[in-house]
Write a structure and sequence with these properties.
Length: 159
């Protein structure tokens, strides 16, 4: 049989690219949560919990990395900020994002702390933090306290 007499293969669909089968509705992005936490175990736990709550979690592992992210990223829906960090503490970062980065001024910030030092908690609330959570925390308590900010997420996504 000559090559010209070989029957051609039927048109086959191109399977080289996988279809989009994600559960996410088209056009809706997950709200972003900036997590500033230097302890890997805590960061991994918070990430797991908050991704389960529908957030895309971006992490800074120290104060210097957080400052760079604040300068370069668009404002997230929520910031979860550890008080005790290498290079810059949580109060300094909070002051920076609330007063030196106008686009971030309305972003809710929740402080995470293992130390319930009344002075630090008071100072962070006076600088604009919306709440603080003591470590170690219970999953249900973290979720309940952070769900209060979901209305902010919806308003931000609508604009």
């Amino acid at each position: 049989m000559s090559e010209s007499n070989v029957p051609s293969e039927p048109d086959m669909p191109d399977l080289s690219s996988e279809p989009d089968v994600s559960d996410e509705p088209k056009g809706l992005e997950k709200p972003t949560l900036l997590l500033v936490e230097d302890e890997d175990d805590t960061a991994d736990l918070v990430t797991l919990i908050m991704e389960g709550e529908g957030y895309q979690v971006v992490r800074a592992a120290d104060g210097r990395e957080a400052m760079k992210m604040i300068e370069s990223l668009p404002p997230p829906a929520l910031v979860l900020l550890d008080m005790l960090l290498p290079f810059a503490d949580g109060v300094k970062i909070l002051d920076y994002l609330k007063y030196k980065q106008p686009a971030w001024k309305q972003v809710p910030v929740v402080m995470l702390t293992a130390d319930s030092n009344a002075r630090d908690v008071r100072e962070s609330l006076e600088l604009g933090a919306k709440d603080y959570i003591l470590k170690p925390f219970k999953r249900a308590a973290l979720v309940a306290r952070l769900r209060r900010f979901r209305s902010f997420d919806s308003e931000k996504l609508a604009s």
